[in-house]
C-alpha cells in the first residue's frame, strides 16, 4: 500500500515537472507573435527582385557580381567598341597579358579570406600584426586555454619567416627554434602559455608587401592568422619654415599653349594678391615668349607636346608642401583666398581640395563596379557628403581645374602625358583609390573673357589654339581606347 | 570464504591498474632526459645578453626598441647635429607638427592588434575581407557552434557600415536590418547559422583606406574581426603594340647640364644600337644647345634648376611602360642590351633593375630601425639575395645610375627637386617601402673618359660644371637636414 502512494506521488511529481517544461517553452513562444508560430521553418533567401531593392547607391546596385554593366545610352560608352574590329582580338590578348603582369606585382587576386573555426582553444591575433622585412617581432595574444591533459604538444608553422620564443627553456621543451616549424612539448599549461606569450616571428625574405599565414595547432584544433610583412612608406614631410609664410607652403602651377597674353593677365592678377609666391609655367607653345617675373619658373617643352604632359611637368618641379593648380586663362580676385584652401588641407585628411571657377564647382562622383572583363565606371554629378568641420565644403571624386593639392599626392598619381589635348575626368579616374578629393564653394577664381583678342598676333595664336583644342573624333576614340587598355575598364556611364 | 578470495582478487586488480597508470606517467617522463626533471619549473626569459645574439642581420639587431641608435663613427651622421643650435628647437616643433599631419593622413599609428579569445563558439573571417566604399559584401565564414539552448540571441555590430542578411526571415527574427547593430533572435541553431552565413556588410562612409572592426556576440562570448574598406588602385597598363617593338616599350631618359659635347657622344652611341628609341633630355644649361635627332624630346629648364629636378622632369614625360635612366656622360656598347633588362622586369615583380657602369654595380642594402625620435637608416654594401630565375641578378635596395624601371613606379616615388647638386642615395631612401630593386651584372654601359675636353668652349663649360658639381659643406648640410625633416630620420650609418 505504501508502494501505491509512492507511485502516485512520483507520477504527480513527474507530471508537474513536465507541465513546467512545456510552459517554459510556450512562454518563449509567447514572446513571439503567435500568428507566425505556424509559419513553416523553411530556410530561404530573399528573391532576386527584393535583393535588387537593397544595397543601392545613386541607382547603382553595389553588390558583388561576376560582370558589371553599363546602360546603352547617349553619353555612355562601351570602350571596346572604339577599336577597329580587325585589331580587337589582338588588343584583348595584350591587355590580358599586361593585366596579369600588373596583378602579379600587386599580389592579386587576393587569396580567399582566412577563416577562424569555432571553439578553438587558442587565443591569437586576428588583425594588425606587422613586421618589417628581416625584422623580428613578438606575436601578441597567443594563448592556450583547453582541457587539462598530462602533456601538451603545440606546433606553430610559418611560411615566409622563422619562429622562436624569448622563453628560456630546456632544449627538449621547445624544438625548431629559428626554423619555420616550432614545436612546444610541455607538461604544464602554465609553462605552455608562458612560452606562447613570448613567441617571436622573424621575417626572412626580402619581399615587402606580402602576408604570411602562421598556423598554431594542438591535436586536431588548428588556428591560422596573418602576419603582414611590410616596409612602411618613408615620410615626405615639408618644412614650412619658422613663419609658415605662404610662399614656403604653396607653389602655383600652370600650363600654357599659344596664349601668352592670357597668361600675362593671369600672372598680373596673381601678383596683386600674392607678390612673391613661386609660379611654375610649363610651356609647349611654338615660340614661347619670355616672362618678366622674378618668381616665375618657365619650362620650355617640345611644341605641342600636350596638355597633361605639361601638367605633369609643372607638378614635377614643385618643392613646397602644396601646389595650387590654375589654368592659364584664370583671373585672381579678392575671393581667390589660397589660405582658405590651405586651411582645409591642413586640418583634414584630404589630398586635394577644389574651389569654384566663376561660380562653377564641377563636382562629380565616380562609382566603380568590378567585372571579369574590366570594371565599370559611373560618373554622377554631385558629392558624397559634407566635409566634417567645413560647412562650405564637400567630399567627392572630381572637381574643377582649380585646386590645392598635397604635392606628394599629385606627384604620386600624376597626369598621364599620353593625353595631349582635351582631358579632365581622366585624372580623377587615374586617382581612384589614391586621392581623397574635396570641393569648397567659398574660394572663387574667375575665368578670363572668352572674347577674341583684338591684337592681330594674339588673334592668330588664338586661332591656332582653337584648332588644337578641338576635341576631334580621333581624339575621343584615342581617349576611350586608352580607358579600355590602361585602366582595364569595360564601360562608362554618366548622369 | 568466497568473500576473502573476492577481496584478494579486487586488491590485485586495483594494484595492477595503479601500477599501469604510474608506469604511463613515468613513461612520459622517461621521454624527457631524466637529468632535467629536477630543474626548477621557473618561468624565465632569455637574459638580454643572449637575446642580443639572436635576431641579427648584417650586425644590426632588428628587434623592437623604443629608440634606435647609430654608432658614432666617421661617415655616420646624427642628422640634428647639422642644424644651427639656435634653430633646432623650432625645427623639432615643426617636424613634430608635420609628422602628426602625415600620420593622420596615413591612419597611423596603427591601432593595437585585434585579438581572438580562445573557445569562442563562433566562426568568422580573420583576414582578407575587403569591401569598396559604399559597396556591400557577404561576410564569409560566420557560424555558431555552441551548446544547444532553447533560444539564441546573437548581436552583430559595425562602426563604419551597416549590417543586413540575405536570409528571408520574419521581422522578429532579425532586427536592425540596414543599421549598425543587427540582432538575431531565433529558436533554431540551424536557422541561426543560415542567417549568419548570409550576413552582409555595407560600407556607408566615403573614406577609403580604413578598417572597420565588426563584433559578434552571444552571451559573454565576443569575437571581433576586421573589414577593410578599400578602393583598389586603378591599373595603369601600357599597350606594347602588336609587335612589342622596343621603341614602344622603352623610353631613354637623361639630364644634361653644361656638357652638350658629352651628351652628343652618348646620343651617337645610343643610335648605333637603338636608332629609333625616344630619348628625353632635361636640360638646365645656361645656353642649351639644339639637338639634331628626330627621336629626341628636348626640355629646357631654368638655368641650374638642378639634378633631381631634371630627373623628375624627364621621367614625368615618359609615355612607355619602361624608362631607362642614363647619365649624359655614358657610352653605349654592344653589351648595353636594354632587352635583357626588359626581360627581367617582364618576368619578375621588381620595379627597378640596374646594370653595371664600366664594371661597377654600386649595389647597397638599406636597413631601417624605427624609433620615437625618428628612424635610423643603415646602408650596407651588397645585396639581400639572388634573384629567382636570373643567376646574374640580385635583389637589393640601391644601385648605379643606370637602370630600367616601371615608369609608373618611378613616377610614384619621384626624384625630389629640392636636391639640386650631388645626390644619389636619397632617391633609394625615398623609395623605401615603395620600390623593389634588382641589379644585374651582365648588362653593361661604359663611362666616357673623364679627361678634360681639348676644345676651349667645351673646356670652359666643363670648368663651370665642376664648380656646380663640387659637393660643398653647405650642400652636405642641406642634404643631411633634409633627411632629418623630410624623412623623419634620426641618423645614418654606412659600411
Automatic annotation (TrEMBL), chains A, B:
Report a single Gene Ontology molecular function.
Answer: hexosyltransferase activity
InterPro entries for this protein: Glyco_trans_2-like (IPR001173), GM2_synthase (IPR011143), Nucleotide-diphossugar_trans (IPR029044)
Q: Which GO terms describe its biological process?
A: carbohydrate derivative biosynthetic process
Localized where?
Golgi apparatus membrane
Main localization (coarse) = Golgi
Q: What GO cellular component term, any one, is given?
A: Golgi membrane
Look up the signal peptide feature and give its range.
Answer: 1-18
Keyword terms, alphabetized = Disulfide bond, Glycosyltransferase, Golgi apparatus, Membrane, Signal, Signal-anchor, Transferase, Transmembrane, Transmembrane helix
Q: How does it sit in the membrane?
A: Single-pass type II membrane protein
Coiled coil stretches, renumbered: none
Cite the Glycosyltransferase 2-like domain residue spans from the record.
253-358
Its quaternary organisation is: Homodimer; disulfide-linked.
- Member of which family? Belongs to the glycosyltransferase 2 family.
* Name the record gives this protein: Beta-1,4-N-acetyl-galactosaminyltransferase 2 (SID blood group)
The organism named in the record is Monodelphis domestica
* Gene name per UniProt: B4GALNT2
Amino acid at each position: 500500500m505504501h508502494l501505491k502512494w509512492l507511485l502516485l506521488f512520483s507520477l504527480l511529481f513527474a507530471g508537474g515537472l513536465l507541465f513546467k517544461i512545456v510552459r517554459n517553452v510556450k512562454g518563449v513562444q509567447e514572446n513571439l507573435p503567435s500568428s507566425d508560430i505556424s509559419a513553416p521553418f523553411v530556410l530561404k533567401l530573399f528573391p532576386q527582385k527584393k535583393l535588387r531593392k537593397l544595397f543601392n547607391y545613386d541607382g547603382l546596385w553595389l553588390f558583388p557580381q561576376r560582370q558589371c554593366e553599363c546602360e546603352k545610352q547617349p553619353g555612355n560608352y562601351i570602350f571596346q567598341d572604339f577599336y577597329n574590329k580587325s585589331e580587337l582580338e589582338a588588343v584583348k590578348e595584350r591587355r590580358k597579358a599586361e593585366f596579369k603582369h600588373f596583378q602579379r606585382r600587386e599580389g592579386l587576386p587576393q587569396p580567399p579570406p582566412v577563416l577562424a573555426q569555432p571553439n578553438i582553444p587558442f587565443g591569437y591575433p586576428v588583425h594588425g600584426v606587422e613586421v618589417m622585412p628581416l625584422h623580428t617581432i613578438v606575436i601578441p595574444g597567443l594563448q592556450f586555454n583547453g582541457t587539462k591533459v598530462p602533456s601538451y604538444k603545440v606546433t606553430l608553422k610559418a611560411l615566409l619567416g622563422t619562429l622562436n620564443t624569448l622563453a628560456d627553456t630546456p632544449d627538449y621543451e621547445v624544438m625548431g627554434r629559428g626554423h619555420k616549424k616550432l614545436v612546444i612539448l610541455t607538461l604544464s599549461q602554465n609553462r605552455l602559455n608562458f612560452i606562447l606569450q613570448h613567441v617571436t616571428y622573424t621575417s626572412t625574405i626580402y619581399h615587402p608587401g606580402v602576408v604570411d599565414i602562421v598556423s598554431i595547432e594542438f591535436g586536431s584544433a588548428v588556428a591560422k592568422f596573418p602576419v603582414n610583412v611590410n616596409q612602411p612608406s618613408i615620410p615626405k614631410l615639408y618644412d614650412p619654415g619658422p613663419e609658415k609664410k605662404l610662399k614656403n607652403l604653396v607653389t602655383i602651377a600652370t600650363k600654357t599653349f599659344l596664349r601668352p597674353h592670357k597668361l600675362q593677365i593671369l600672372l598680373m592678377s596673381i601678383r596683386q594678391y600674392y607678390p612673391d609666391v613661386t609660379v611654375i609655367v610649363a610651356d609647349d607653345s611654338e615660340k614661347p615668349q619670355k616672362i618678366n617675373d622674378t618668381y616665375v619658373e618657365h619650362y620650355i617643352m617640345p611644341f605641342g607636346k600636350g596638355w597633361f604632359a605639361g601638367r605633369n611637368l609643372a607638378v614635377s618641379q614643385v618643392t613646397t608642401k602644396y601646389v595650387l593648380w590654375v589654368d592659364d586663362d584664370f583671373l585672381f580676385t579678392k575671393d581667390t583666398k589660397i589660405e582658405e584652401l590651405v586651411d582645409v588641407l591642413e586640418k583634414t585628411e584630404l589630398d586635394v581640395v577644389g574651389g569654384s571657377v566663376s561660380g562653377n564647382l564641377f563636382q562629380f562622383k565616380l562609382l566603380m563596379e568590378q567585372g571579369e572583363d574590366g570594371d565599370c565606371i559611373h560618373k554622377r554629378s554631385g558629392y558624397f557628403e559634407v566635409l566634417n568641420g567645413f560647412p562650405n565644403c564637400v567630399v567627392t571624386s572630381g572637381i574643377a581645374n582649380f585646386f590645392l593639392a598635397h604635392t606628394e599626392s599629385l606627384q604620386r598619381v600624376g597626369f598621364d602625358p599620353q593625353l595631349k589635348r582635351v582631358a579632365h575626368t581622366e585624372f580623377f579616374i587615374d586617382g581612384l583609390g589614391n586621392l581623397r578629393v574635396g570641393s569648397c564653394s567659398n574660394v572663387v577664381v574667375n575665368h578670363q573673357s572668352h572674347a577674341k583678342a583684338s591684337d592681330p598676333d594674339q588673334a592668330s595664336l588664338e586661332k591656332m589654339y582653337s584648332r588644337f583644342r578641338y576635341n576631334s573624333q580621333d581624339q575621343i576614340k584615342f581617349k576611350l581606347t586608352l580607358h579600355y587598355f590602361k585602366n582595364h575598364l569595360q564601360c562608362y556611364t554618366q548622369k
